[in-house]
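# step 3/5: fold
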Amino acid sequence: MAVLSGDWPRYEGIEFIHCAGRRFPRSLRATSFARAACRKIAEMPPALVQSNDRLPCCDVFRAGEGVHAAYLAERRRFETRLGRAATALSPFHRQTLRLERTTYASPRLKAVIAISKMVAEDIIRHYDYPAERVHHVPNGVDLDRFNLELRQQHRAAVRAQLDVDDNRPVVLFVGSGFARKGLLPLMKAVATLDGEPEVWVIGHDSRANAFKQAGDRLGLGARLRMLGPQKDMLPWYGAADIAVLPSIYDPFGTVVIEAMASGLPAVVSTGCGARELVDRFEPTLVCDAASLNDLAAGLARALQLSSRPETAAKARAAAEHYDFNVMIRRMIALYESIDLR
């Protein structure tokens, strides 16, 4: 096995081949890397090439970032008229769309891995790619690591550290890039709820202070806790009551399977690929993030469910369909089915 990348940690048995394109301008970064990678691949002996980036010379493309055309379509619902015009004229978005079209039109491309049913549908709808060559292989979860014991292990200690009562509802938001992940709609919805829930925000955003100030204006005050990035998520899943990912567009949302494997109900947007998992558990928790009322109703419903003894096991049962080892076997089966001739 060989890995072509600008940077990659060394592992025994894996050859690292350095490949880098231009860093600037940002609009040409992905295209420049794709050209450099395709030149390298053309010089190598024949092999199965899988790419996790848009690449016109791969055999298998894992659409881990989703479909950029679908993201832009969903984003337009949240933008002002001026914002939509700026997006349409953006060199970055125009170049990304061009590279995406070239990737799906490549005669070499034999299979596409879609990490959610939503992404699979987006690929077929936007690029008319043959449905039989789109393979649904979602992100997996380590069911041993994320488990129902986390509540017993961590809830009391984490809440004591933050001086939060055991009976105070806690909404957990995990993700970086707060605007795209839907933090502002979440804060607005929480501000309308009874019971004064807290919102714990884990992740990085250069504008975190601006979101904190917005929370203050909404009346959340100290109930909005900006906790920054956390290396170990287990204590936070154990201490919260529900998880929320109201993204404008998210190809899957690993936080959702981790949270549900840990027994938490999860609220997601219609633009989140993990909605397929939430649908298995409770379809009313899939909300339109553009609708304050819809999102607030989903949050209220999830908090209500979190107080029921049977909820944790039901959330866990939905997540068990996404066992990491099962997804590995599905990937291997796909590789073995591909004819490189």
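# step 4/5: annotate
The CA atoms of residues 112 and 185 lie 33 Å apart.
# step 5/5: archive (pending)
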